[in-house]
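We treat protein structure as text, and this decision shapes the records that our systems exchange. Such a record has a labelled line for the sequence and another for the backbone structure tokens. The record that follows is passed on verbatim for readers who wish to inspect the format:
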Amino acid sequence: MTPQSDEDEVWRQIVASFNDTAERDSADQPWPDSENLPAEPTRRVVKPPEGEPGEDDDLPRDGADDSTGEGSEDEEAEEGHFVPPPPPPLPKLDLVTKLAWVALFGGPAYLLVAAMASWHMEGWALFTAVAAFIGGFVALVVRMGDGPPNDSGWDDGAVL
């Protein structure tokens, strides 16, 4: 027999058994002991009984008197809680940048409102709106700057 005929026979067996159901029960399959997980003991959280409000408010709650030997649930919840620092303030914009943003969004907004309201638009109004959009875009791109930031110091790392 050639290797090709062996592959053909294996392929015929695969195709013939494609729609067959599994006859073996999963209980018959051996399960390796290395795959078994150790049983973990169940954890029980005991809450102290709630008394009258203000009864023990002056006592510190540090979890030292818990009968389980663990901290309270509030301490566990606060332990993994991350509160990010407040974000830095937004940079102050100069008048030219503000006007560029207004022109960038104002031109198309005017055209959209005028088209939805079916206003008759003169040629100079269309030209002004389109020119404002293009001018605002160009102004923002030109003022963007592509150099390193001024506060990077004398050692700005590798420059390629």
About this structure: DSSP finds four helices and no strands in the chain. The mean pLDDT is 77. The two ends are 63 Å apart (CA to CA). Residues 95-116 form the longest helix (22 residues).
